[in-house]
Amino acid sequence: MRLHRLELTAFGPYPKPETVDFDELGADGLFLLHGDTGAGKTTLLDAVAFALFGRVPGARGDVKKLRCEYADPEVPTEVKLELTVQSRRFRIVRSPEFDRPKKRGGGVTTQPAKCSLTWLEGWDGEGITRIDDVARAVEDLLGMSYEQFFQVVLLPQGEFARFLRSDTAEREVLLEKLFGTERFLDVEKWFRDKRVAAGRVLEERRKGASELVHRVAEAAGEEPSFEPGWLEAVLERLAQAVREAAAAAEETAGVADGADALLAQARVQAEQIRRVREARELLERVQAADSAAWFAERDAARRAAPVVPAHAEIEKLRQSYEFAVRDEARAAEALASLGYEGSSLREDAERCREEAGGLSELAAEAERQQADVRKLSVLKNSSHQVERRLLAVSAELEVLPDLLARCRAQLDAAVEASGRLESLKARADAAEALPAAAEAVDRTKNELHQAIDVHQKAKDVLQQVRQQRLENMAIELAAALKRGKPCAVCGSPSHPAPAQPMLGGVDAAGEEEAARDEQSALQRRTEAERAAHTAELRIQACWEALGSDEPAAVLAEYRAALDLAHTRSQRQNEFVGLEAKAKQLATEKAKVEQDLVGLRTEHTSLVAVVEERGARLEKARGEHEDVLTRRDHLLRLAKALVELDERRNARDNALARVREQEASVAALAAEAGFPDVAAALAAHRPAIKLQALDERIAAWERARASALATLEELAGVDPADGVDLAEVTAQASSARAAASQAATRLARARAALDRVSELAARLRAEWKSLEPLEASYAELDALTDVINGRGQNSKKMTLRSYVLAARLEEVAVAASARLHRMSQGRYSFVHSDSAGARGTRGGLSLDVLDDYSGRSRPAKTLSGGESFLASLSLALGLADVVANETGGALLDTLFVDEGFGTLDSDTLDIVMNTLDELRAGGRVVGLVSHVEELRQRIPTRLRVRKARTGSTLEMSLA
Predict the structure, then answer these.
(1) Residue 484: is its pLDDT beyond 70?
(2) What's phi and psi for 763, nearest 5 deg?
(3) Cβ atoms < 10 Å from Cβ of 471
(4) Is 893 helix (H, G, I), strand (E, B) or coil?
(5) Nearest CA-CA partner of 199 in 779, 646, 942
(6) Interior CA angle at 843 toward 842 and 846, to 5°?
(7) Cα separation of 321 and 315, whole Å?
(8) Which of 106, 516, 728, 947 is the most exposed place for a label (fewest CB within 10 A)?
(9) Backbone angles phi, psi at 480, to 5 degrees
(10) What positions does the domain Rad50/SbcC-type AAA occupy (predicted)?
């Protein structure tokens, strides 16, 4: 990494933009940043760190206050750094978060932090503007974090001295950040996680084996045990129990089979006796039943079966005859209502139809007559409506000329108002602007009076300041006097009693400030005069536009003209509509008059036709209302005559069918063997009762046959004999229960043996598979303890601590070489890997070996100068080791900000020779110090001095 250019604005003690050209400063490889204490030397290194990482080292980074308090509030805080890393040149611009005045209103607003990275050479990629992306890009390019950077490139005040005196825990934290040993921490964690996972798996397997042991004990009905041989003993006891249960089951099964045979024989004998007894009782009940009456009733019902449906048909035919008689009566009544008194139905019906046919032609004329009469009524109504419409149109035409004249006058007035509207609007605008113009005149006059007063006061102050400066000019001239140089007034090189500064005196700066205040007040006065003159011109223009009229009258006239002009389009549309309506009404009136003439002519001709046809129809209607009514009467009479004749024929046919069916039923009853029809109907039984009778007879026959068959089958059985079945059943049940219990015990014993044998096989397999897991876990557990500083690890060092101890040993070797030289062979570093007190981790102890005494001692016992030498040596050694760790290509630039003031001249020479050697290979080394002797030894290329309002930079290339 090589720095080229640094620009900072409003940063730290620097209120104005400052620039540092590191290419010019580092031309000789070694330069000094010199200045008084508190001038801001370290701030330059803070600016470099802030540009790269957005933070500054040490306690200054905890305060997070980077903005200059002397800077102009409008000037933003900004740091620009241009550098080259890995042959890539780029520029970083970074601003911290700070408060700035609001652009509108009072108060302040927080300006958020921002950052950007721009590539200049060696890379064609796009720039980066997000803070997180810039941070990742810088760390990738440098190959180190900000902690490593502050220990390798930028060595801040007190940081490596703190590292020298720190304890093991603090030193471990810093070394971890410098050397990036997170991967070894990951290894430790990996082993711990691996052991936990393996332990979890082993514990699960052990738990499974333990569960199998408990399941074996539960299946065997014993207490679980983990003693050797317990499983084999359990299996042997279960096998012996199976053998004993099998012998007992075989013995009880033989006894139960004999008892079952005796029980079966007793049950057969008891069943035979019961059947004989039941057969005899059934035969007695069958013989006592009246079976002959059942057979006679069934035969009579079967013979009467054909007579019943034939008799039911008689009832249906009688109902049909009664319906026919009622229909005949209704037809005769309807014929009587038509006034018929004859007896020849068919002949009279033919005569009526012929007479109605003769009236068909006149019926058509009657229908036309009715239509024409209705049409006469319609024509009369239409004529009345047309006459009313004609009167209405005529009335509208009479009033239209007045409406047209009135609308035309209103339209002309609206047109005239539209023409005057523009001139009236200018005057109305002047009337509306008049109050605001008057208010503006009053306001600007007041502002002018105030501006005049302020300017006059500022002018008086300026005159007083100038007078005071003239009075104190001797003091000002005395401040410019220098020893041995002539006075600008008298020319004397000696100045025995120059005037002394007095409290409250005025100098050139005070006069310039008063002059600026007077010019500012004069400018505000000029602006106020200009504003007052503009307001006077505006109100004068308003009154010129109004003339002698009142503003209210002008506004009223304008609003009236505006309202009237707005009606112009409406009046125009109304006038055009009235003209169109007049033309439409004239056309409509002519058409209505023509329609009225046509209607009256048609009505007159139709009246004559209706009167002539009405005379013919009057003669043909006879006693009826009209011809159509007479024809309808004749047709209804003919239909009624034919219907009565048909009803009488139907009545006679129905009576003949009833007589025929009665004779047929009497013949069927005699043929079935009954004396008359009534006897046959009495012998009839419904189908359900006949079915029940058949079932009763069949059941009687089955019962008789069953009883006789049972008595014949069991002829040798005496129903008086008896069998004690309860005692035999009890003996068989007792024997069978004993056999069942013995069989159950045998099944349980065999099931227990089978279950325990299966679980035992699984348990032996589980124990065998656990052996390699136990061995593997024991090995992993021991190795994890060693890696994490426990167990057989006598030094109590973790793997990460071991690596850090190796790195620290390298640092001690590299630092000892420089310390040995700078201390003139007295001191060197001693690294120890022994464990700490009370079993704490070791490996990171670092002491100083004093060659004078031959003993090592803590670094805290060194003096101030010795501590500086040891700290600087340790920092440079640490930088060398870290650089080698990161590739050794990043140390083109090195800054040292440390207390050189604690060294004597000889030691300072040795230190400077050591630092001078760091320039080898093109490295640039920058020192930050206020020690004057360093300024004499190193050409001062950059000097920092305090100004009245902040620090400034002076670059000298001498």
Answers:
(1) no
(2) -65, -40
(3) 11
(4) strand
(5) 779
(6) 105
(7) 10
(8) 106
(9) -90, -5
(10) 5-180
Torsion from C-alpha of 504, 505, 511, 513, nearest 10 degrees? -30
Confidence of residue 807 (pLDDT cuts 50, 70, 90): confident
Between vectors from CA 953 to CA 950 and to CA 956, what angle results, nearest 5°? 155
Q: In this structure, are residues 41 and 33 in contact, taking their beta carbons and an 8 Å threshold?
A: yes
Round to whole Å and give the CA distance between 400 and 12: 96
Phi, psi of 20 (to 5 degrees): -120, 120
Of 80-84, 298-302, 540-544, the range with the highest mean pLDDT is 80-84
- Own/partner pairs for 121-130, CB < 8 Å, 24+ apart? 121/84, 121/88, 121/89, 122/84, 122/86, 122/87, 122/88, 122/89, 123/88, 123/90
Residue 257, CA atoms < 13 Å, CB-side half-sphere: 6
Give pLDDT tens digits for 436-478.
888 888 888 898 889 888 888 888 888 887 777 776 676 666 6
Question: How remote is the C-alpha of 574 from its chain's centroid?
Answer: 62
Compute the distance between CA of residue 406 and CA of residue 956 in angstroms, rounded to an integer. Answer: 102
| Residues 610/376, Cβ–Cβ less than 8 Å | yes
> What's the rounded Cα separation, in Å, for the pair 770 and 767?
5
Instruction: Give residue-wise pLDDT tens across range 568-585.
Output: 788 788 878 878 888 887
Grouping H, G, I as helix, E, B as strand and the rest as coil, residue 624 is coil
Q: How far apart are the first and last CA of the chain?
A: 26
Alpha-carbon distance of 821 to 717, in angstroms, equals 142
Please write down the HEC assignment for all residues of 806-828: HHHHHHHHHHHHHHHHHCCCCEE
Q: Hey, what are 503's tokens?
A: 């409290």
CA distance 327 to 653: 14
Q: pLDDT tens, 709-735?
A: 777 777 777 767 766 677 777 877 887
Backbone φ and ψ for 668, nearest 5 degrees, come out as -65, -40
The residue among 640, 582, 633, 155 whose CA lies nearest residue 393 is 582
CB 797 within 8 A of CB 805: yes
Q: pLDDT digits over 383-412, tens only?
A: 888 788 778 878 877 887 888 788 888 778
In the chain, the amino acid numbered 644 is: L
> Which are the contacts of 179, defined by CB distance < 8 A and separation ≥ 6?
803, 804, 807, 882, 885
Do residues 562 and 421 lie in contact, with contact meaning Cβ atoms separated by under 8 Å? yes
Edge-to-edge, what's the strand order for the sheet holding 114-121? 18-21, 2-9, 78-85, 88-95, 114-121
- At residue 93, the pLDDT reads 94
- Give 358's pLDDT tier (boundaries 50, 70, 90): low
CA distance linking residue 555 with residue 546, whole number of Å: 10
**Tokens 């003690």 label which residue?**
13
Q: What are phi and psi of 182, to 5 degrees?
A: -60, -30
**Pairing mode of beta strands 893-897, 154-155:** parallel
For 956, phi and psi rounded to 5 degrees?
-125, 130
Rounded Cα gap, residues 691 and 495, in angstroms: 168
pTM over 0.90: no
pLDDT given at position 958: 35
CA dist 403 and 751 (Å) reads 124
Q: What is the mean pLDDT of residues 905-919?
A: 69
How crowded is residue 809: how many other Cβ atoms within 10 Å of its Cβ? 17
Strand, helix or coil for residue 201 = helix
Helix count and strand count (H, E) for the chain: 25, 16
The residue type of 676 is: D
C-beta separation of 508 from 473 below 8 A = no
* 49 alpha carbon, distance to own chain's centre: 43
Beta carbons of 638 and 356 less than 8 angstroms apart:
yes
CA distance 145 to 159: 16
Contact 886, 144 (CB under 8 A): yes
Identity (one letter) of the amino acid at 541? A
Please state which of the ranges 8-22, 235-249, 550-564, 920-934 shows the lowest mean pLDDT: 920-934
Q: Please name which of 175, 178, 189 lies closest in space to residue 801, comparing C-alpha atoms.
A: 175
